Amino acid sequence: MNVIYLDNNATTRTADEAVDAMEAYYRDFYGNPHSAHRLGRRAHEAIEAARREIAEGIGAGLEEIVFTSCGTESNAIAIMTAVAQKKQPRIVVTAVEHPSVLSLVESLVATGRADVDVVSVLPGGAIDLEALDRSLHQPADLLCLMLAQNETGVIHDVAAAARIARAAGTRLLVDAVQAFGKIDVDVEALGADYLSLSGHKFHAPKGVGVLYARRGTPVEPLWHGGGQEAGRRSGTEPVPSIVGLGVAARLAVKSLERAAEVASLRNRLEEGVLETFPSATINGAAQPRLPNTSSISFPSLRADQIVDALDAVGVCVSAGAACHSGAPSASRTMRAMGVDDASAIGTVRFSLSRDTTAAEIDEAIVRIGEVVGSMRRGGEVAAGV
Ligand code: PLP
Questions:
Q1: pLDDT tens, residue by residue, 109-119
Q2: What is the CA(177)–ligand 1 centre distance, in A?
């Protein structure tokens, strides 16, 4: 049975071109990029070449790019900079941020290190700009706003939020982890002071990320050491991974040409599913969305069971609901969007990539129809609904 991978918002397959480029930096050019000899120089040059790819990819300057280990770390550096710079900073987040933002700010509140305001989203998933405006009437040090939501793919109006933040004198962290390689990401157009990327979401290897920090914007390192990345991120750089990141970034930007094709496959998937299950709903469908993402609620079914059943027939997807000790509960994002519990616990995320084919989508529709159809029949008997 062929595996149909529709979980690209969780992670992507590393591009062959990236793996090929990385190999030499494991086998031959293994010098420390800070060593003075030829192997060191070679590694250093490779890092700088990757920095150029990333900088070009998001419209930034070279010195504004910091290599990190992942999107979680990039978000943490920006947030912890606000904490390091000021006693008890005020941080504003939206209710649908990734746990790398929400869990961190919650821990800052719990330990008395920051004040946090959570701005709501509207039922379709868009940020409530009026609520943001009200929140920023009170001075705030940092606004954390994702460009594209990981569960629904909803794209936020970051430029509008940035204008509000700028007028209020608040710095803006844009979490662009899910957006890069799927839609255009430009730090100037967005008005970002900080911006986070994660390699493994755009066909680079896992364990490498990027923090963009606008020229003149403070960056307090999370830890100290050899002073790599201009003192902003100490630790010997993972040269092969950074090489892979650079190659993947170039491919990601190029693949934007194909975004409309990916969107039409995603739409075909949604139409196929809705045809079979008219009671299913698409979350965030009325909003601008990433071309690759579909969050589908199957009311009265359990997403964790759908994920397992689809896995058994070779379709890899994610549950949009959290599952703790066997009992699923609505994800925070679904709650924030006002999705009712019966739909929220039956929410499944399908996420395509530029490699997804029409044949895979057609086959996925058939397998989803069979699996979810039989669960519904079984569920109707068992649950009596
Ligand atoms: N931000 C968003 C929107 C994400 O979707 C993710 C990962 O799913 C992250 C941040 C964290 O990225 P990483 O896995 O590289 O730590």
A1: 999 999 999 99
A2: 6
